[in-house]
Amino acid sequence: MEKNAKIYIAGMYGMVGSAITRNLRARGYSHLLGHSSKELDLTNQKTVFDFFQKEKPDYVFLAAARVGGIYANNSYPADFIYSNICIQTNIIHSAYIFRVRKLLFLGSSCIYPKLAEQPMDESCLLTGGLEPTNESYALAKIAGIKMCQAYNRQYHTSFISCMPTNLYGPNDNYDLMNAHVLPALIRKVHEAKVNSQPSFVVWGTGNPKREFLYVDDLAEACFVLMNEYLNDETINVGSGEEVSIKELAQTIQEVVGYKGDLVFDTTKPDGTPRKLLNGSRMRTQGWAPKITLKNGIELAYKNFLEGKIRM
Ligand code: GFB
Description:
The structure is a single chain. The longest helix is centred in the first third of the chain and has 21 residues, at 77-97. The chain is 41% helix and 15% strand. The protein has one domain (7-306): Rossmann fold. α2 packs parallel to α4 and α4 (77-97) packs parallel to α5. By secondary structure, it is an alpha/beta fold. Guanosine-5'-diphosphate-beta-L-fucopyranose is lined by residues 69-71, 73, 108, 110, 133-134, 137, 166, 179-181, 184-185, 202-204, 208, 210, 245, 268-271.
């Protein structure tokens, strides 16, 4: 990407979009475009068309999405499939109409089968049933991957996609019901500490395993892919660092400085037992994560304490 390129970050004010924006600004890119969801309704096809007609960006990072943790996905499947299919379809089609030079679509590791062989290679896509709690979101993201590939094939566009593992970091959502597990547990452990509670609640059994990647490491991967990656096969972006939910909670307790008990609420779902990505193809692009899980949790907790979050 040329330094004077016009770059649209869809979802600029979300956790991923703001990390991509930080990365590009630090590299001296100054012609960055983005809107809050209140300013630009990406689910409205004409609004998106008019935006692209006016701005004609050279590059697009498609990081806008309706996201959430297991409870949100399980509770609002219609919202997740509708909003995400609308957002991505409107942006990908307008990017084609207005000749965007390259677009990077961000998906999620939940697109892979619930019981896929671990670690999950990109080739296992659509080889088995999806995790029911987030099937709507997963199907929307799979449609986005396939739409990029279809436009590349028919219209010779350069639309690529990447599948990050579970992400966390600045500007994360800390809503106790709708957040992802890592921010939710940071908030629960913090509140147990400041309120001198004897314990805090962990959903499920604590046995499932999850891989986590700090969002600034993902942003660097997105920059590398936009500049170097031309294959329209989707590519995993993972840390390779997997922990059980119980171990995650205990690590968060260490960082926060709280020694209370874990209480497991098994009325809440565990979700998929594991979703560790095979990130070897991304390593061949010359990228590797820099921030370990413990260090990342320390950074995330610091952001939480500074109020750089969404409740
Ligand atoms: O991040 P999370 O909500 O979603 O993690 P997924 C859910 C796992 O953490 C389950 C446990 O095993 C939960 O039982 N957990 C324990 C908690 N305590 C909590 C808590 O307080 N809050 C939450 N949220 N979980 C998501 C997909 O799956 O992964 C999304 O639903 C997306 O679509 C995202 O793909 C990356 O990791 O299970």
